[in-house]
Amino acid sequence: MKLAFDIALRFLKSSKGQTALIVLGIAIGVSVQIFIGSLITGLQKSLVDKTVGSAPQITVSPQEDGAYILDSQAEAKTIKATNPEEIKNLVAVTQGPAILNTADESATILLRGFDWKAAQGIYKISDRIVKGELATNDNEIIIGEDFAKNLNLSVGDTIELITPARKTGKFLITGIFDLQVKSLNESWILSNDRAVQEFLETGEGVSQIEMQVNDVFAADEVAGEIEKRLNEDTLVVTNWKEENAALLSGLSGQTASSLMIQVFVMISVVLGIASVLAISVVQKSKQIGILKAMGMHNPKASLVFLFQGFLLGVLGALVGVGLGIGLSWSFATFVTNPDGSSLVPFFIDWSFIGISAGIAVAASTLAALIPAIRVSRLDPMEVIKNG
Amino acid sequence: MDNYVVEVKGVNKVYGKTIKTVALHNLNLGFKTGSFNAIIGESGSGKSTLLNILGTLDRPTKGDVIINGVSTKNMSKGRLSDLRNETLGFVFQFHYLLPEFTALENVLMPYRIANGKAGKKSRDRAREILNLVGLEKVENNLATNMSGGQQQRTAIARALMNQPKIILADEPTGNLDSQTTDSIYQLFRKINQELGTTFIIITHDRRVAEKADRIVEILDGRISLDIVK
Ligand SMILES: Nc1ncnc2c1ncn2[C@@H]1O[C@H](COP(=O)(O)OP(=O)(O)O)[C@@H](O)[C@H]1O
Ligand SMILES: [Mg+2]
Q1: Residues A201-205: contacts with CB within 8 Å, 24+ apart?
Q2: Which phi and psi angles does A161 have, rounded to 5°?
Q3: Predicted confidence band of residue B2 (pLDDT cuts 50, 70, 90)
Q4: What whole-number distance in Å separates Cα of residue B197 and Cα of residue B213?
């Protein structure tokens, strides 16, 4: 082993140009893999984050329209206990449609009430208030930026809301929020849970329990666990993945095409190594011949070339990882939106990089298999006869 | 008969399948332990073929090669490799040094093939042999940074490393000037006398052959002359 390794090392050192060329080839392959991989992953992460980062990822609600979850605190506890590692940012929401009447217009809105503190996890409302403050008392609300603009409302105004059950209530606007989604800014009116429960006359009941999970892509699995744990026909558990099928199929298409590129990059790297090593077998045939004449066994002689493939793979992977990270970083740093933020955020997935490097090393070693087989077939007589 | 260190029995060698060239005809020949032998003969007479068969690098078409009293006929490739490594030393017309390694590392090569790592003891021994062939000053030169004579002497030192019973040399001085040739044969004789190593040397040089204990002449794959002094 040691001798085969030493000879492999010496062979590589003695033809530095050739070695550098293969290492560069592998390195470029690995760096392209890492670059494309982290680009796509970064892109997907930011896309998913934009889509569901500030939205509920799993929602538990009554089967029946207009029904309420009565013991929301106990249900929330049960839900959390299902998978305490994954589930976070639980919030109970009481909501219902209402009509707003002003002097010249009426608009349908969704009145939503929750405990401000609990809602901070998903909606980060206090960071999203652009004017005024949160509505903490009964008969106080906050409205969206676009809604305020459309209806020419501002902090301090009072509006009247009518429920489908014809109940009316007057509310003071204490603040204006911007959730960065136009449709929500136009249609949501938010308040604290007490105020909404009282106005909609739900008593202690809430409309749904919303939550997020640490691994957003595991939302469907966690939702399944919750469903099993709750084991109640009256409740349904939905998750963001079922509601964003189009986005997800887009993402998996992207992943598949990136995988395809990576596979072809690897194939070309393997072919490159195999062909250069095959040439090297011819170049080193005298050395191999005499080593065998002096008693080196065939498998050992083959090992010399497998080690060369392995060493080239390790070197190429190391250089490639450096290059790939540098490339990804440059892309994130220099390719920016007009406002200066990265078009695609810099994202390093060490396990993905580790896998890429590992595959490169394995593929390089494997690529050396064909030359290694040729070496084991080389007859020392041929070398000695032909000088 | 018993003290033959290497012996061919009824050895035939035929090259080619359609056009058959018979290189050796039913050869019977044995060499005594510690003897110093020369093989002479015209070019193409079958000398190299015989030597390569003696060295188990080539297999006879018919017949057997017996080394140290053991038939090699049914040995596996691995066994033959081990046998060559332990018992035989080769010197060819070309030195076949590994150009990627220094003189000392080349000399250590047969030892490392058997043992993997070379410790201090084996290194000292390799230096001693390099001393013997007069190369102590260039032991750390790459094989490519030596003269033709130095390269061939390194190859001889390498052949001696595992203290083989037999040295097989195929025109070892064919590429060297007469002065270097003389010094190399003196070296062979010295090793033969001091270590009792058996030498079988193919040579064109009559002067060299005359200094051997025994001269075997090959003609068209047959022994035409066998003189023991
Ligand atoms: N690989 C081979 N294929 C066919 N013929 C061969 C081969 N090797 C040697 N010969 C023939 O065998 C004969 C003996 O060759 P060789 O042993 O090399 O002779 P010498 O060493 O005495 O010059 C020659 O006629 C040569 O042409
Ligand atoms: Mg010859």
Answers
A1: A201/A165, A201/A167, A202/A68, A202/A94, A203/A68, A203/A70, A204/A70, A204/A71, A204/A72, A205/A68, A205/A69, A205/A70, A205/A72, A205/A94
A2: -115, 145
A3: low
A4: 13
B207 is written with which tokens? 């002067």
Q: How far apart are CA A148 and CA A268, in angstroms?
A: 59
Q: At what angle do helices A298-334 and A285-293 cross, to 10 degrees?
A: 140
- Which tokens hold the place of B157? 């030192």
Pocket of ligand 1 (CB under 6 A): B 15-16, 21, 23, 41, 43-49
- Mean pLDDT of the B206-225 span: 92
Q: Do A295 and B110 touch (CB under 8 A)?
A: yes
Domain ranges within chain B, ordered by starting residue: 4-228
Closest CA to A201 of A171, A170, A167: A167
Say what the pLDDT of residue B203 is. Answer: 92
* Residue range(s) occupied by CATH 2.40.40.20 in chain A: 64-231
Give the nearest partner residue to A291 out of B57, B58, B113, using CB atoms.
Answer: B113
CA distance A15 to chain B (A): 9
Tell me the two tokens of residue B198: 């058996």
List chain A residues with pLDDT less than 70: 387
Query: Structure tokens of A40?
Result: 């796509």
Q: How would you label A177-209 residue by residue, b for 16+ Cβ within 10 Å and e otherwise? A: bbbebeebbbbbbbbbbebbbbbbebeebbbbb
Distance B14 CA to ligand 1 centre (A): 10
Q: What is the dihedral of CA A258, A264, A270, A272, to 10 degrees?
A: -120
pTM for this structure? 0.79
- The CATH architecture to which A64-231 belongs is Beta Barrel (2.40)
- Burial class of residue A79 (count of CB atoms within 10 Å of its CB; 0-12, 13-18, 19+): buried
Choosing among 3.10.20.70, 3.40.50.300, 3.30.70.1450, 3.40.1190.10, the CATH entry for B4-228 is 3.40.50.300
